[in-house]
Amino acid sequence: MKIIPAKTAGFCMGVRRAVNIVLELVERTDQPIYTLGPLIHNPQVVELLKRRGVVPAESLEEIKSGIVVIRSHGIRPQLREELEKRGLKIVDATCPRVARVHKIVEKYSQQGYLTIILGDAGHSEVEGILGFVQGEAYIIEEPEQVQELPEADKVLFVAQTTQSQEKFQKIASALKNRYPQLKEEELKIVNTICDSTERRQNEVKELAGRVDAFVIVGGKKSANTRRLKEIAEQEGKPAFLVETEAELVPEQLRAFPRIALSAGASTPNWMIRRVYEELRQIALLEHSLPFRLFQRLVRLGVILNFYLGLGAGLLALLSGVFLREKIYLLSGLIAFFYIFAVHNLAVLSRPGLLEVIEPGRGRWFLRHRQSLMSISFLGLVLGGLFAFMHSIWSGLLYSGLVFLSLLYQVPFGRKNQRGLFPYQSLMDIPGSKDIFMALAWAVVIVLVPMVEKTELHFEPRFWLLFSIIGLMVLSRSILQDFRDLQADRMVGKETLPILLGERKSRWLVNFIILTGLIVSFLAWQFSGIGISIWGLFLGMAWLWLCVPLFTIRTVIQGLRAELLIDSGFILAGALAVSYTHLRAHETSLHLVCRLLLE
């Protein structure tokens, strides 16, 4: 089974704008926040917003005080006036394209035009449009209803923004036949269908010729999502509308060799990705048992941060080569166990993040929470054991690093507290995770293995290596943060891209990687180590290649994204270790040849 994801996915502009407005309110106010009905037609997003204190109210009687957010569908002017009379603060999150329809309808209905609206009767957007009509208005859903319209001297035809483009054109043609006597200025046909909706619909039509079935992701009450399903079925393809990956039926889907994945305008990226990853797991069942076992082994290694720990271990071996021209196996083991354990504990401290972004890992961590806690603490202990085996000073420094790492994750304040330090823990400080993790990696990889005496005499190349490792890890963290900014904001995770914005963060990560490449080049020029430094250079270059994939348009997601990004560490360490190994063999070979010649 082959899965073909649609290129047009994720929140449309109006939905994204509404969600961002609400999230900004959550972050800067203590007042109650209400929306008139669900903010968008996606129950998963609405539920996440409820966890953050945004309450969807079904009637005005439910709202006593606070802030009322007008959702993206808009409302009638009369309802706005009622909100103002009650003294409630109003924040307007109406989609600009919907607001445009309001202005058009208001303008022409005042001039005596009969208003015809292509839309779903009773839909909140249509109800909002009707509120701006001054005069007669008719809602139609099919071209056949045009003949039932009354005579009129002037007619305006608009559409609900999520309607079908094809249906709009058919009804526009039917209106011209119904009112042949009207001139162009008397029969105003204004195409108000959102261009995002149009692109999604066109893509479904285009994909229909290449696939055998569709999976459409989105709320079952969402008009534009249902429309995508209808268009797929009109094209003669079976379409399955699901809100979450739990609704997928493997037995149904395995009957189709090629499946297209599309989504409605109010479906967040992380939900699309969850469904995509589940479809991949269903498709995996078609492969041979050895391949499935290998894939699951790799998946488990990424989920448990073994792969990330391996990268750290190889970088620690590279550190020994770079600073002492020797491979220290103990330093690799120290770094492996520390990074493996600390990253797992970071996930276990806030599993709610992964429940949203990567439910497979989140559920797995929650299901095995106690076992994973025990394994992670065992990893910290083993890392400490190897550190003390290396030297007493390495062990003491490692112990101090572990203490700070655990302190960083310990909650010591109340949730949503206010004051000089309005955070529940140090890890809640915006951007602190990225900076702390970069320093922790640099310490355990470079500093811990090198501390053998009470007196430290660090050469310049030590600080070069410390800087390069820190810059690599900081770049890696920012790239990971880009994977789903909307989901991070939903659950209250404040990352550097959220703090600085996407454009500035993209500039920052490019600057960091460029700095790392320059430092690597300088280290090669002045350290006298030779080719081992090119492992670091290669690792930084690999991360730079990942920048457009994860900061402009996230092409690869889920565990495969981690595998790709973290491969930079594997490449960097493996190159240096391989070079040292080959050089050692070459030296041995020269010695043997010399003895034979003598």
Description:
It contains 24 helices and twelve strands. The protein is an alpha/beta fold. The strands form three sheets. Strands 1-12-10-11 form a four-stranded parallel sheet, with helices on both faces. The chain has a four-stranded parallel sheet with strand order 3-2-4-5, with helices on both faces. A four-stranded parallel sheet has the order 7-6-8-9, with helices on both faces. β4, α3 and β5 form a beta-alpha-beta unit. α19 runs antiparallel to α22. It is elongated. The protein starts with a strand and ends with a helix. The C terminus is likely disordered.
Short characterization:
This protein has 598 residues and is an alpha/beta fold. It has helices at 13-28, 43-51, 77-85, 96-110, 124-130, 165-178, 195-208, 223-234, 250-253, 269-284, 289-303, 306-324, 329-349, 351-357, 359-367, 369-390, 392-409, 432-450, 460-481, 485-490, 496-500, 502-527, 533-551, 558-597; strands spanning 2-5, 33-36, 54-57, 67-70, 89-92, 114-118, 137-140, 155-159, 187-189, 213-217, 239-242, 258-263.
Structural class call reads alpha/beta
Major β-sheet annotation: 4 strands, parallel
Tally of DSSP β-strands: 12
- Output the strand order for the largest sheet: 1-12-10-11
Q: Could you estimate the helical fraction of the residues in percent? A: 55-70%
CA radius of gyration: 30 Å
Which consecutive residue ranges, at least 5 long each, have pLDDT under 50? 586-597
